[in-house]
Design a protein that fits this description.
The complex is a heterodimer of chains A (about 300) and B (about 220). Chain A is α/β, with parallel strands linked by helices. Chain A contains 9 helices and 14 strands. Chain A is elongated. The relative contact order of chain A is 0.14. Chain B has about 220 residues and is mainly alpha-helical. The chains are: A alpha/beta (about 300), B mainly alpha (about 220).
Chain lengths: ~300, ~220
Amino acid sequence: MDFAIECRDLCHRYGRKPALRGVSWSLKPGRICGLLGRNGAGKTTTINILNSFLVPESGTCKLLGEDSHSLSPATKARIGYLIEGHVQYGFFNVEQIERFYSAFYPKWDASIYYHLISRLDIGKKQKISTMSCGQRSQVALGLILAQKPDLIVFDDYSMGLDPGYRRLFIDVIRDYAADGKRSILLTSHIIQDLEGLIDDCIIYDKGRVLVDTQTERLSQDYRRYSFTAPEFKAHLGEAPDYLRVEQHPSRHLMHGFVNPDEVASKLAQLGIAASDIKEEKMTLEDIFIALTGKY
Amino acid sequence: MTRSIFYKEWIKTRLVWALLLAVNLGYAIYAILRLRYVYVHHDPLLIWNSWIFKGYTFYAYYEKLPLLTGILLAVAQFLPELLNRRMRLSLHLPMGEDRVVAAHLGVGLLLMALLFIPALLPMYAVAVAYFPPEFIGGMLTTSTPWILAGIAAYMFTAALLLEGRWFARIVLAIIAAASLRLFFQEILYSAYERILPVLIAWTALTFFIPLLSSQRFRKGI
């Protein structure tokens, strides 16, 4: 098995509206990958295909070497899945739900679950439906980690969580993946949380893969420069290096996969008489917004 | 694993199940008192004439209760799965997807049996004590369509809740209403005797409808 997840040429439409247009990417074993994109970019459609709740119009998707729509029970037992909104069975209490899930997973480790629960201000008899979203997220996470899965898919793990629970969630994921044997795919709209966590980064835009690279490389190579210039009209066309230019009242911005020694010439090629060019630091969220736009 | 699914379904439905048991037993007690009243206060010749020749059913009060029981039990079982599309959790369990849904339906059938048997057995026991065997056999064939209607109603309600699209739900609801009407064309004594095997076969087939709905749910149709 070469990949934990492998998507090839996924295409899907809702009615006439295309949701995925030939999406291909893969997740190598032992890596943590962030699947990012703005609302409607196609992330949820991809997650639904991955979790076999949607058949794509065309293309294939494999999890741990098996087609996502015909996973064997043994392979399913190796995959943990967090549903958006930390959905769980609300009628169970903390103990009952552990008893229920433990029967299904051969590698089940209840101590992982109860260790997470012990950090929360909840009793073992508390019903899940009476918990806060943050508490429920920890119960859902504890149940997934107790399975000791080889592959975990976290669909919008940050939804509804306050900063404390978000940080806790990330810390737990980081600890769990520390042995380098677990493959993790996660989606989130809180991109700043993923900085330093995800090894790889896939960014969707309008149903296509815009960027698929190592996060470190993206942070190193995608740069932003500010400069001053008289009013200009830049014609970028289909820039292969994701070049973007923004005009602002004081200092203008240019970002893209551009080295510092190429900036001046690139700007000159665009017909911009730039001066006082300075490189600015970019966070992962800055890069994401620069690539996918604000509108 | 199947035991765990039973455990989950029991925790989820036990309050509704207990309520339905109380209602079913209440109706059964009423039917028993009614049968006893008929036996005590009416002339045997008149009972024979009404029951056998005119087809009058003295215990018809129980007629629609299995139907209501089936619908409510399916709602108690599958509505929580519908909310937030929680069925995804169950379908992700390491079992075959059809087997997961079949196990849920099996639990529902078992819980229904545990509602109908305690209600019907005392009714038949009292009837056996008071009336000749001709009446008892007829009682069985008269009340069997009601029980079958309860099972079919359970399957249709489960399918409606598992179905992903509203249009499909509406179509299914129309089929369900037409289909369930078949079970209540007549309440006369032994009216369904000849057609009973067909009704049993049709009820058995309804087991596959929720399975088809869950397959459609999985495909996102």
